[in-house]
Amino acid sequence: MPRVIAMMNQKGGVGKTTSAVNLAAALAATGKRVCLIDLDPQAHMSLHVGLDPDELDCTVYDLFTDTARSAEEAVVRVDERLDAIVSETDLAAAESELAEQDDRQHILSRAFAPIADRYDVVMIDCPPSLGVLTINALAMADEVIVPMQAHFLALQGVGKLLETVGLVCQSVNPQLEVGGIILCMHERNTNLAREVVDDLEGFFTGARDSDAPWRNCRVLQPPIRRNIKLAEAPSFGQTIFQYEPTSHGAADYAALAQCVLDGWNPPTDVEVPAPVVETPEAPQPADASGTQDAP
After folding, report:
1. Beta bridge partners of 145
2. N or C: which end of the chain has fewer CB within 10 A?
3. How much is the pLDDT for 266?
4. Residue 129 — pLDDT band, cuts 50, 70, 90?
5. What pLDDT was estimated at residue 286?
6. Beta carbons of 126 and 10 less than 8 angstroms apart
7. What 3-state DSSP class applies to 37?
8. What's the pLDDT score for residue 267?
9. How far apart are CA 38 and CA 95, in angstroms?
10. What is the spatial distance between Cα 108 and Cα 134, in angstroms, rounded to a whole number?
């Protein structure tokens, strides 16, 4: 089964969609088979990869509201090893349409299950709100990754988001974990950025021995530097690797993908004992008569 990541932050404008698209593309570039799922009614993820919902017959909205439609119909090829299921503005109505439906938290996972074995990674771009759509993403996910800026208010928002994940774990998905924090539009030379990063790392270090869903969370490296190419790429309907593969943004997301993969497959530090080499005994000195002592 694929590793399912919910890219989530209840605050908008923090680089969530940019990170979902470009981290997915970077993972695909390592050889992983990746599917992007857009759960935001604004459909920014869909537009970022050059897909217009109005030109497609089946979107994620259809998967939520029409049991006759299949994920097979909704999948669109974006690039080699990278697929997507797009969103549309009608998805905003799904919140009210699904309000009375039984087991509405697992609609997405049931719809995606028939094609899940095609992929190594599924990346879900969540809306910046906690409703039926986000709950579906969290019910399906193995882990949450939180993009944020190193600002004081963003730090407060992460605290509230962790509380939300904790509630979801209790009621819908006990296996869900918070896997990492992505620092977006980062300016590492400011005192504020350093203080926020120190606070984050101190908080997660303190949670290591707890049973909280964020006990294994880490600040993912490297931070994503502020880069105009990342802002330009969506207007061309391209990932940063298609638009400007030599940019700082492309380098940062490529390194970030490797950091994520290393977290999934940590190296095993097995100490191999050094071979014992027996040193030959030194010859005894000869006596005055010129004969050597017997061994």
Report:
1. 7, 180
2. C
3. 67
4. confident
5. 46
6. no
7. strand
8. 59
9. 15
10. 10
